[in-house]
Amino acid sequence: MICVFSGGSGSGKSELAEKCAIRLAESRKGGLYYYATMRVWDKEGERRVEKHRRQRAGRGFVTVECPSYLDTEPSGGVILLECLSNRLANAMFCDRDEDPAGVILGEVKALAEKNSVVIVTNEVFSDGAEYDAETERYIDILGRLNCELCRMAELVVESVYGIPVVHKGELV
C-alpha cells in the first residue's frame, strides 16, 4: 500500500501521515520505520529535526537516516518517508543523480513490494514566483513525481490547515 500526504509548509501533513503510518502498523507484524531524508545544514534544520523527533517520540518509530538513498531492505513493515521533497533535492543537488525521478520511483516501488509506504511531500506549485532554471527543474520533477506516486497510491490526502482532504481512497 502506498499513501501520499501533501500540503504546504506547516499544514499538518506530517502529523496526519504519522498517524496513518501508526494505524497501518497496528495491523501488521513488521516494524514501523521513519525514513528521515533531510540533510541538516544549519540551526533551522536542527530545530525542524528536533520538532519531528518530539512529535514521534514514544510512537514506536525506528529512525533510518537516508538523505542519499532509501534503504529497501525492510520487509513486512510500514515506512514513513519524510519527505519526498528533501529526497529529491538531495538526489538533484547533492548526489547529482542523472535521473533523480527514476531513482526515487525505483526506490519507492521496491519498498512498496514488501511494505506499506506512507509518503510526505510538499505543495510548492502555487506561489506564482519565477525561479532560476535549476529550481524550476526541481519543481517540475517534484510535480511529476507527485503525480506518478499519486497514480500508484491507494490513498492520497492533502492537508489544508491540518484538515485532511482525501482525494483518493479512504483514511485508515
Structure described in brief:
The protein is of the alpha/beta class and 172 residues long. It has helices at 13-26, 43-56, 84-94, 100-114, 133-152; strands at residues 2-7, 32-36, 62-65, 78-82, 116-122, 155-160, 163-168.
Biggest β-sheet: count, sense, barrel? 7 strands, mixed
- Helical content (DSSP H or I, runs of 4+): 40-55%
Principal-axis shape equals globular
Q: Assign the CATH topology.
A: Rossmann fold
Count of alpha/pi helices:
5
CATH hierarchy, class: Alpha Beta
What is the annotated CATH architecture? 3-Layer(aba) Sandwich
- The termini sit apart by 11 Å
Strand/helix succession: EHEHEEHHEHEE
Number of strands: 7
Instruction: Supply the CATH superfamily name.
Output: P-loop containing nucleotide triphosphate hydrolases
Number of domains: 1
* Secondary structural class: alpha/beta
Element layout with pairings:
Layout (H helix, E strand, L loop, with lengths): L1 E6 L5 H14 L5 E5 L6 H14 L5 E4 L12 E5 L1 H11 L5 H15 L1 E7 L10 H20 L2 E6 L2 E6 L4
Parallel strand pairs: 1-5, 1-6, 2-3, 2-4, 4-5
Antiparallel strand pairs: 6-7
Helix pairs in contact: 3-4, 4-5
Written description of the protein model:
The protein has a seven-stranded mixed beta sheet, with helices on both faces. The longest helix has 20 residues, at 133-152. The protein has helices at 13-26, 43-56, 84-94, 100-114, 133-152, and strands at residues 2-7, 32-36, 62-65, 78-82, 116-122, 155-160, 163-168. By secondary structure, the chain is an alpha/beta fold. Helix content is 43%, strand content 23%. The protein is built from five helices and seven strands; from the N terminus they run βαβαββααβαββ.
